[in-house]
Amino acid sequence: MEKIIIDKIFGSPNMKKIFIIGDVMLDRYLLGDVTRISPEAPVQVFDIRNSEYRLGGAANVSYNVKTLGADPFIIGVIGEDSEGRLLIDAMKELKIDTGGLITENGRPTTCKTRVISDSHHLLRIDSESKNDISKETEKKILDLLEKNLNDIGIIILQDYNKGVLKRDLIKSIMDFGGKNKINILVDPKFDNFFEFQNAYLFKPNRKELEDALGKKIKTPEDIETFSAELMEKLKCSNIILTLGEHGMMIFENHNGEFKKEIIPTKARKVADVSGAGDTVISTIAVCLAGGASLRDAAVISNYAAGLVVEEVGIVPIYKENLIQHITREQN
Question: pTM of the predicted model, to two decimals?
């Protein structure tokens, strides 16, 4: 892929906003050392050196869209708590619009605390609610879409099964996208897997596909068979199946003709796969908004994922680094 093509994709002057709807999270990192065992119990003593706060979940997707040079608008739900305030402060510091964050009383902000020593994850502590959002919050989300209709280029539905993308809301958003000819990209989880009917792109990983269909992939032929079955169930236009160290596969429906292609992984060394899926869907969305074909968007996202898994923790992908990396790799 020539650099002039990549520059054109990421420099499109007509790119509309990318709307991300889903479960926003705050990622807290406790960084320190373990050098002794507690005298109180046979457990390690963790000495904190410092702590960091980063955007997680759908908020991380919005951050990746931002660092790739596009304009994100995040719609999600937070609680009236310190974690919610920290999340808003972090987003404002990164110049990400927080106007789509809805506070729901009695609901905690989803927060994942990772305890890390010498680049090793020792423990993760989650604080969250998986209950469905209220009808009132659901209406606020749909009102935000109607209010901003003229600014929407692409919609990403980022589901982590934390209660925001409930069944009724999913159907309303899919209907909204179809009525207004807006492409919807879906990053699914198990609970609502088959609710995302008629999406432009559906992006599960291998385990999510196996869990949803209730059967194991044992051969390369199974991947194609299961993906074709999924495409028929969802009535979606395209599927990108991420396969970890084996890269990804694209399945496209061209007027009833089923096409597939394998894209090998681009990771040189893997330190942490956290957030790689967020990177892939963000990069695909930005590339499509910039006029790229789905195949080119997938190839570029594969390079992006290869870069972020080399880092510990959830990190964003930066446009300039990605372009330089692809250009260097292909020369």
Answer: 0.92
- Which residues fall within 8 angstroms of residue 201, CB to CB, at 6 or more apart? 183, 184, 185, 186, 236, 237, 238, 239, 240, 284, 294
Q: Which residue has the higher pLDDT, 218 or 257?
A: 218
Tokens of 41: 């119990």
Paired residues of 152 in beta bridges = 17
- The C-alpha atoms of residue 71 and residue 17 are separated, in whole angstroms, by 5
Tell me, what DSSP letter sits at residue 42?
S
Domains parsed from the chain with CATH numbers: 3-32+46-330 (3.40.1190.20)
pLDDT band at 325 (very low <50, low <70, confident <90, very high): confident
Q: What is the pLDDT of residues 116-166, one digit of tens each?
A: 998 788 999 999 999 999 999 999 999 999 999 999 999 999 999 999 999
Tokens linked to 10: 């990421």
The region that residue 154 occupies, defined by phi over 0 for left and psi between -120 and 50 for alpha, beta otherwise, is beta
Catalytic residue status for 118: no
> Of the listed 23, 159, 272, 278, which one is catalytic?
278
* Residue 312 and residue 98 in contact, taking contact as beta carbons nearer than 8 Å: no
CA distance linking residue 188 with residue 236, whole number of Å:
13
